Amino acid sequence: MWNVLLSFSGLVALIQLLFLPFFPESPPYLLLQKEDKAGCLKAMKQLWGEENYQTEFDDLMKEKAITKGTKIMNVLEVLRERSVYPQLCTMLLLLLSLQLCGLKIFQTANLQESIIPYVSLGVSISELISIIFCSSIIDRFGRRRLLCGGYLLMAMILVLLEASLLLSDRFLWLRYCSVILIFLFIIAYGIGP
User: Fold this and answer.
1) 87 and 12, same structural domain?
2) Please, what's the b/e burial string for 54-80 (b: 16 or more CB within 10 A of its CB; e: otherwise)?
3) Structural domain count of the chain
4) 35 φ, ψ to 5°?
5) Domain range holding 167?
6) What is the gyration radius of the CA atoms in the chain, in angstroms?
7) Is the distance from CB of 120 to CB of 179 less than 8 angstroms?
8) pLDDT by residue for the chain (193 residues), tens digit each?
9) Where is the protein localized (predicted)?
């Protein structure tokens, strides 16, 4: 029943994809990143109703003033910063544990047992690459667009993955498509959600 479980995550991604466009952007994102005061106030009213949010807005303006001189660090600068090493080590351990994911799918795809560890390692590397790539483009595109695109890609990839696994007994080349689709799913997840 693992394929039902896999399909369930696709269903959740599809539901989130359908409803996400109806939600406003985050007020702190609009004010601090986009410097859109009117959009920030409009988003506050959409999220919390028609009230006076001047106190919250003033708090965001204070935060903006405090962080005005703060430089946003890129990935390499974060890797050089010693104060974040414990968090980086935790994240790295989580990424390395992804080597175990997809083993059942790889076995179902009838891949040779000797190849499966290398494919699992590739999944972890894909996750790491997608996280680094996402952190460099999130300010340019915004979280909302990345979430919508990521969920849409994940839903399409899961449909294709399910089809390729069901047909892998008839067409042997679909086994390798399943592996490629898993890599693409991991990348879409890392870039979006």
Assistant:
1) no
2) eebbeebeeeeeeeeeeeeeeeeeeee
3) 2
4) 55, 40
5) 76-191
6) 21
7) no
8) 666 766 777 788 788 888 888 888 888 888 887 888 888 888 888 888 888 778 888 888 888 888 777 776 777 787 888 888 888 887 777 666 555 555 566 666 666 777 777 777 777 777 777 777 777 777 777 777 888 888 888 888 888 988 887 887 788 788 778 878 888 888 888 777 7
9) Membrane
